[in-house]
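ok trying this again, last paste got cut off
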Amino acid sequence: MGPSIMDRRELGRRGEWVAMALLLLKGYRPRHRNWRGAGGELDLVVEKRREIVFVEVKARTTDLFGGAVAAVDAHKRRILTRTSSAYLSRHGLWDRPCRFDIVTVERRRSFPFWSVRHYRDAFRPDLGRRL
């Protein structure tokens, strides 16, 4: 499937694999991928040195309309906050430090085919407890 006919779902799937590869190279350990709960989904949940990291992956083929980072707006942050709270409760992890990162993956038509950026600690929501 060429980049011009790659559908959004496939782009998202590939973007998550590219993001996970980057995080593994940085020493993160995967916990979950596409975890669903509390009305939302967590793209990636990883950890490093006991810190739980919720990673929102945004894959795009263009940076029009603000690019991938702009897609994590206030509404999306509320969904991520609610879903991550459910994750922490379900897995008994409220005692662990945690944060929210964004990984943007932009597909290009020529080499290098992927442009990947990791935004560490991209936002800090109120989870009802101190993080």
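PB: full thing came through this time. The longest strand covers residues 51-60.
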